[in-house]
From TrEMBL, chain A:
This is Septin. Signal peptide: none annotated. InterPro entries: G_SEPTIN_dom, P-loop_NTPase, Septin, Septin7. Keywords: Cell cycle, Cell division, Cell projection, Centromere, Chromosome, Cilium, Coiled coil, Cytoplasm, Cytoskeleton, GTP-binding, Kinetochore, Mitosis, Nucleotide-binding.
UniProtKB/TrEMBL annotation, chain B:
The keyword Repeat does not apply. This is Septin. InterPro entries: G_SEPTIN_dom, P-loop_NTPase, Septin. The keyword Cell membrane does not apply. Residues 401-422 are annotated as: Disordered. Keywords: Coiled coil, GTP-binding, Nucleotide-binding. SUPFAM superfamilies: P-loop containing nucleoside triphosphate hydrolases. It comes from Haplochromis burtoni. It comes from the Eukaryota. PANTHER family: SEPTIN (PTHR18884). Belongs to the TRAFAC class TrmE-Era-EngA-EngB-Septin-like GTPase superfamily. Septin GTPase family. Residues 41-307 form the Septin-type G domain.
Length: 426, 422
């Protein structure tokens, strides 16, 4: 996307990593580690050994000592400092896990806890006013497998299957000092076989560009799952003070890579991959939770309105869109639909009006025509009458004239006769 | 912001124990782990240069980054201000930097500059908006999102020696809540030392009196607080840029050659270029990125969400659930659409009723008219009938007379003959 440019001299942005380093030290770090396993598998001892501190002590007993009737999820926070770096470490443990007679659903409180941490983060991320966003999400889950030497128990499989898509699962063989190296090898092979069979996705070490690192990663991969031993006591062996477990037949040293994989675990968990565990939690597990949660929302929203039979909204959430953008899209669709509807209604309306107006016009024309017709008739009658009258009056006038003439004549004759009689005329 | 960050360790209500370690655990490598990850990912930095055409923006960028970024000389005849972003991939040792330089073309050239700041604000907001949209997506990938948000705005002040132009004040005021601003005096080789001193004081006091918030180099981290504090006092930086080299002594340095002397870019007694480079790139680049994300972007996001009607519920009550708000918003929104639809239908129903009533009236009028005509016609007809009646009467009367006269003349002998004999 960008154009490659060569620098002709030192600019100085190579100091960016230092700036980042400086700021991160100032900010401090957080890490949340969850430990799950039946009681007595050495979880607390291992934690103490890992962090070289008495996280669990007489005052703050480990999960196996806090006997519970049902599975609890409890956490303890400790602040530790080393080399100027501050780490807020939260250990989440699950006393009661796997200890009941009926362990069905004993993983549910664990799942609920992980989800509730995701929910908290999602809520604080979604606030309008965002301030500090403490990250209490579970970054890693150490799952302790009892050193039976045979294979995974159904509970182990069930637990890992249910949690592998919610959290980084690192399975560990606990109390590895009860297995001989050969037994341990067999056990590991068997476990890995079963893990693959059940398609369980345990935490994977990322590949890097560095060849050296990749070789190390490969070495670790070959030793999975790591077999660990923990100890709270320091013993002197050959003049050295080491953490170990004293047996009549010798000392099992925690940090001796011939004895167990503790150092590999420690190096991987704390010294090299702690940041990656956080990143995978943030970029993969959390994002999965979030997208599932938000997708459910939009689906529910659609459901509500399908019942009302109104808008024909998309049923599936559009993957590439934020819910707000989706609403915007729907609004636009609706506006277009309304426009269309409006146009249609207008058309229908206009048509109906036209029809009616036309009918009215026709009606008017018809009435007009009839009226004209009647008028014509009447006029004709009128004319006829006039003619008749004229003729009659003429006739009468003539007759009357005739009668008058006759009368006059008669008058004249009578007068003559009268005069004769009188001897007036000779 | 930084104060709140430090509070992080004390915000949890739970008991938090401080424990001491019985040996080397190894988590002191955490900063290193973090750094190596970010180096693998590469870094991204976006610079916005605001200043009049010809003030030396491109030259300064070339000088800062020791490379020739391509640039056609801009003309003064642009219709408006437009922003031209260019992205480059740079590398120094193992550090990869995706650098975007955004130039404001045409700034200050128009006669009416009232709206000059708008394209700049719009560009900054658009980058925030793009990030926000990505952040709100259901399936998002923020960790490999190419961040285009502006991390720093270098505001180039013309070396008049007097004071800030009103365009400068207006523009910086519009930008100060959206981006980190470092004001610089450009072409500083045209101002003498004493003039420069007065000019800097004048500029700073004008910025203060107008409430313009410029970027302060952070002083909370002891490792860099001293140098940052002293640099803050040198603002605004008076810079000179040059990609040409001049031989001074037995070294070739970047400089501008005048008849009266050579202005050396990297000579701190000649100009503040070195200070700018130190602050901008070598010491505070990461802080600029952080401030952009934690302060300016958050402000934009907050305003945008509030505009859309989102609210945090009471902080004392249940924590705000985004899902519930989305759901509520959606219900409201769909209800709104439904209502609009209803309204439109209703409007049509009313329109239809109205028109029907109108047409009915017309119909009625028409009928009345014709009724009236009918009545008139009836009257006329009656008249004609009457006339006819009269005529018939008259005719009858006449005929009677005729008949009577006839009868009379028949009963009277006619004396006519007698008369005629005489």
């Amino acid at each position: 996307m960008g154009q490659q440019k060569n620098l002709e001299g030192y600019v100085g942005f190579a100091s960016l990593p230092n700036q980042v380093y400086r700021k991160s030290v100032k900010r401090g770090f957080e890490f949340t580690l969850m430990v799950v396993g039946e009681s007595g598998l050495g979880k607390s001892t291992l934690i103490n050994s890992l962090f070289l501190t008495d996280l669990y002590s007489a005052e703050y007993p480990g999960p196996s000592n806090r006997i519970k009737k049902t599975v609890q999820v409890e956490q303890s926070k400790v602040l530790i400092k080393e080399g100027g770096v501050q780490l807020l470490l939260t250990i989440v443990d699950t006393p009661g896990f796997g200890d009941a007679v009926d362990n069905s659903n004993c993983w549910q409180p664990v799942i609920d806890h992980i989800d509730s941490k995701f929910e908290d983060y999602l809520n604080s991320e979604s606030r309008v006013n965002r301030r500090q966003m403490p990250d209490s999400r579970i970054h890693c889950c150490l799952y302790f497998i009892a050193p039976s030497g045979h294979g995974l128990k159904p509970l182990d499989i069930e637990f890992m299957k249910r949690l592998h898509e919610k959290v980084n699962v690192i399975p560990l063989i606990a109390k590895a000092d009860t297995l001989t190296p050969e037994e341990c090898q067999q056990f590991k092979k068997q476990i890995m076989r079963e893990i693959q069979e059940h398609k369980i996705k345990i935490y994977e070490f990322p590949e890097t560009d560095d060849e050296e690192e990749n070789r190390l990663v490969k070495k670790i991969k070959d030793k999975l799952p790591l077999a660990v031993v923990g100890s709270n006591t320091i013993i002197e062996v050959n003049g050295k003070r080491v953490r170990g477990r004293q047996y009549p037949w010798g000392v099992a040293e925690v940090e001796n890579s011939d004895h167990c994989d503790f150092t590999i675990l420690r190096d991987m968990l704390i010294r090299t991959h702690m940041q990656d565990l956080k990143d995978v939690t943030n970029n993969v597990h959390y994002e999965n939770y979030r997208s599932r949660k938000l997708a459910a929302v939009t689906y529910n929203g659609v459901d509500n309105n399908k019942a009302k039979g109104q808008l024909s909204t998309k049923l599936e959430t559009v993957d590439g869109m934020s819910p707000l953008a989706q609403m915007e899209e729907e609004r636009r669709e609706h506006v277009a639909k309304m426009k269309k509807m409006e146009m249609e209604m207008e058309q229908v309306f206009e048509m109906k009006v036209k029809e009616k107006v036309q009918k009215l016009k026709d009606s008017e024309a018809e009435l007009q025509r009839r009226h004209e017709q009647m008028k014509k008739n009447l006029d004709a009658q009128h004319k006829e009458l006039e003619d008749k009258r004229r003729v009659f009056e003429e006739e009468r006038a003539n007759w009357e004239t005739h009668q008058r003439l006759q009368q006059q004549q008669m008058e004249a004759t009578r007068t003559l006769e009268k005069n004769k009689k009188k001897g007036k005329i000779f | 912001f930084l104060a709140l960050e430090c509070e992080r360790f004390s915000i949890c209500n739970e008991e938090k124990r401080n424990l001491s370690l019985g040996g080397h655990v190894g988590f002191d490598s955490l900063p290193e782990q973090l750094v190596s990850k970010s180096v693998t990912q590469g870094f991204c930095f976006n610079i916005l240069c605001v200043g009049e055409t010809g003030i030396g923006k491109s030259t300064l960028m070339n000088t800062l980054f020791n490379t020739m970024f391509e640039n056609e000389e801009a003309s003064h005849y642009q219709n408006g201000v437009y922003l031209r972003p260019r992205t480059y991939d740079l590398q120094e040792t193992n550090v990869r930097l995706k650098l975007t330089i955004v130039d404001t073309v045409g700034f200050g050239d128009q006669i009416n500059k009232e709206d000059s700041y708008k394209p700049i604000v719009d560009y900054i907001d658009t980058q925030f908006e793009n990030y926000l949209q990505e952040e709100l997506k259901i399936k998002r990938s923020l960790f490999n999102y190419h961040d285009t948000r502006i991390h720093i705005c270098l505001y180039f002040i013309a070396p008049t020696g007097h004071s800030l132009k009103s365009l400068d004040l207006v523009t910086m005021k519009k930008l100060d809540s959206k981006v980190n601003i470092i004001p610089i005096i450009a072409k500083a080789d045209t101002i003498s030392k004493s003039e420069l001193h007065k000019f800097k004081i004048k500029i700073m006091s004008e910025l203060v009196s107008n409430g313009v918030q410029i970027y302060q180099f952070p002083t909370d981290d002891e490792t860099v607080s001293e140098i940052n504090a002293s640099m803050n006092a040198h603002l605004p930086f008076a810079v000179v840029g040059s990609v040409e080299e001049v031989k001074v002594g037995n070294k070739a340095v970047r400089a501008r050659q005048y008849p009266w002397g050579v202005v050396q870019v990297e000579n701190e007694s000649h100009c503040d270029f070195v200070k700018l480079r130190e602050m901008l790139i070598r010491v505070n680049m990461e802080d600029l990125r952080e401030q952009t994300h934690a302060r300016h972007y958050e402000l934009y996001r907050r305003c945008k969400l509030e505009e859309m009607g989102f609210k945090d519920t009471d902080p004392d009550s249940e924590p705000f659930s985004l899902q519930e708000t989305y759901e509520a918003k959606r219900k409201e929104f769909l209800g709104d659409l439904q209502r609009k639809e209803e309204e439109m239908r209703q409007m049509f129903v009313n329109k239809v009723k109205e028109t029907e009533a109108e047409l009915k009236d017309k119909e009625r009028e028409l009928h009345e008219k014709f009724e009236q005509l009918k009545r008139m016609h009836q009257e006329e007809k009656k008249k004609v009938e009457d006339k006819r009646g009269y005529l018939e009467e008259e005719m009858n009367a006449f005929n009677k007379r005729k008949a009577a006269a006839e009868t009379l003349s028949l009963s009277q002998p006619v004396k006519k003959d007698k008369d005629k004999k005489k």
